[in-house]
Amino acid sequence: MLTLMRVSESEGEKLQYQMEMMRSLRHVNIDHLHVGWYQSTFFGSFMSRALLDSQFSYQHAIEESVVLIYDPIKTAQGSLSLKAYRLTPKLMEICREKDFSSESLKKANVGYEKMFEEVPIVIKNSHLINVLLWDLEDKTAEVEKHELLSLSSSSHLEKSLQMLMDRVDDMCQDISKYNNYSRSLSKQQQQKHQYIQRRQQENAQRQSRGEPPLPEEDLTKLFKPPQPPPRMDSLLIAGQINTYCQTVKEFTSQNLGKLFMAEALQGHGS
């Protein structure tokens, strides 16, 4: 059995939970190999800097470490949402060097689609678990059994689209920050070029008068380049937007199947 630790409110709670879980596994003679952690998500919203830093910490210490993403809302609607992810080797190298500049990301050819790699999940249950599931199914009310066939999807789709719009707004703000940085950098480069030209002209005039040239100045102190905005946040936003789009695509595909099935049943009944 592979042990995955949860994300708690504090480091103290997380450490205590880990120790208790490892101790319980040892008491019942179950293999206990710590290979990562897990996190619940809300409508597929999990791409964040906190997740990136946590997974890097685990994966740096344990090479085969993974993070499990579980969506309880989607699972409650009849579709098990459980995915495992790892950081790609290129992103691990960038996180190790802590260089999130545009040049570094461009050199490593890292985009939002190359940040995480999905690990396939295979779920195997023992015979006792299968018996328990059959017993629970017999005790489940008929309404709950057929809830996954419900055609009502407006609330879920509306919430997903609203969260997608919010992240698109965040992306627009991030693009605006980068454009402001580009304009500031271009303006400073222009001022630096004009200053160098004036110095050259003044030195030429002093040389024609037989005067010594002006002393050299450290231009890096006179013209400090503006601080570029971190590009990792942009990649995370783009990755989250892509996740929302995939979630909406899967959800609408399932609902289209339900609608075609309902249409066929109505046609058969009439």
Helix and strand arrangement:
Elements (H helix, E strand, L loop, with lengths): L1 E5 L4 H17 L5 E8 L8 H13 L4 E5 L1 H5 L5 E6 L1 H9 L4 H7 L7 E4 L7 H13 L2 H4 L8 H55 L10 H4 L9 H38 L1
Parallel strand pairs: 1-2, 2-3
Antiparallel strand pairs: 3-4, 4-5
Structure description:
- This protein is elongated.
- The longest helix is centred in the C-terminal third of the chain and has 55 residues, at 154-208.
- It has 10 helices and 5 strands, in the order E-H-E-H-E-H-E-H-H-E-H-H-H-H-H.
- The relative contact order is 0.11.
- Helix 8 (154-208) packs antiparallel against helix 10.
- It has 270 residues and is α/β, with parallel strands linked by helices.
- It is 61% helix and 10% strand.
- The mean pLDDT is 79.
- It has a 5-stranded mixed beta sheet.
- It has helices at residues 11-27, 49-61, 72-76, 89-97, 102-108, 127-139, 142-145, 154-208, 219-222, 232-269; strands at residues 2-6, 33-40, 66-70, 82-87, 116-119.
**DSSP summary, beta strand count:** 5
Largest sheet: number of strands, sense, barrel closure: 5 strands, mixed
> Residue share in helices?
55-70%
Q: Distance between termini? A: 53 Å
Strand order across the biggest sheet?
1-2-3-4-5
Contiguous runs where pLDDT drops below 50 for at least 5 residues: none
Proportion of beta-strand residues: 5-15%
Name the average pLDDT.
79
Overall 3D shape? elongated
Structural class: alpha/beta
Number of helices: 10
* Rg from alpha-carbon coordinates: 28 Å
Helix and strand succession? Answer: EHEHEHEHHEHHHHH
